[in-house]
Amino acid sequence: MSSSHELSRRSLIWSLTRLTLPIWGAEIAQMAISLISISMIGHYSTLDQAAVSVGVALWVPMFLLIAGSFSGLTSVIAHHFGARQPDKIRHDMWQMIWITLVLGGSVTLLLWCATPWLMAIFHAPPALAEAGEHYIYALLIGLPALMGYLLLLSYSNGMNHTRPNLIFNIMAIIIDVPLTYLMIHGGTVLDALPFAVPQWAHNIPAHGAQGCGIASAITYWLIMFAMLLYTVRHRIYREVRLWQRPIAPHWARISELLRTCLPLGVSVLAEATLFTMVALLCAPLGAQVVAAHEITTQLIALMFMTPMSFGIAVMIKVSTYRGLQQPQLARRTALLGIAMAVAIAVINDLFLLIFGRQLLGIFTTDIEVLTLALHLMLLGMLFQLSDALQATMSAILRGYKDNRIVMYITVLSYWAVGMVIGIALAKHGISAPWGVYGYWVGMTVGLTVAAVLLGLRLRHTIRKDMQHYHAQEGAQTSAL
Description:
The chain crosses the membrane at residues 21-44, 56-78, 98-122, 134-154, 166-184, 204-232, 261-287, 299-321, 333-355, 367-385, 405-425, 437-456. The protein is mainly α.
């Protein structure tokens, strides 16, 4: 292999790493907020911890539908950025702003009305259902701000500028963690401070699970305004002139963006609900089972942040290189991303094997919850490779704008295969019902099927893209 090729590979790895690290840091920060909240509420009461877990199971699907859709915008912006088309970036951003305004109101109203009905469907005990509803209603106050923040982050990521991810999520930790503790326990915790605080702060009542939602909503609004100010003032966005004046809705382009972005939101939703639906299905099994499932899911999700962040970076570079009309470099980036995803999965499993028990112990002091969580963690280790591969390959396919097939594969794999097998094993097993273990085996099968099918599709997509490039190159040569 030539030295120039080696240098090219090292340069590519460094470029991906520079994009990945802020995204990874931001995702870890987001997970840290969630994990710290779960830990805080777990030490407050098991009932409130279970209420947050069930509330998250209802909140997260809507959130991920939105966040996944915005990831499609990142790919679109990155393609325009590579092609040096700032006017198209500005136009598409304004179309997404209009979409976000309408979608934000619709989702908020839908979840507000549907929450009691969903709690009843999954037979959550009355006390658990009431606490979970209060948590969701508090979160919904911050939903419009969260959507605006995600929209601006997708814009920045598409511009190959991922640093704001880290900056503003660290800001979120600084705001959210002490605020969550205060809202859970009430103003009495301020008595221990070595300095004086206003009396009204001491009178804040303990909100329990609802306090987690209140703190999150306040944090969402603060970081959204901070990110908005950043995009107004930072020089990297100056050429786009996004905030110079609004661009009216262009319905044909809005329709095209929805066709591009919504399948990705559905794909992310399909995977996430494989986990969150289990939390709802576990509700009749009791608060301890729900709590064990939730803290294990949070730990597995924390490990998943690395391949997911790397996948986003690969998607950004693939989209950018295709905008630059460099399909060979896009292909090399994709193949390198797959190889590194395998390495990441192996490292994740080793980390869980060594530190998993200690990490789970942070979130609960209940011995039965901890023991069950350890067993679930071992099952989670089995699908690390499949999860890392499917995350990376689906991100690469987004970079190639092959979005709809990703949606079909994920829905088929996670629901028609994974969920069906999980429910069958949980309810019936082989000789006896497997309970929550059956659901986790089903998730493992679903993720593995997704990884295989996405791999086959990606090979076809890359080959087709290269054939198109060579055909164009041949036509240009003939014309000369």
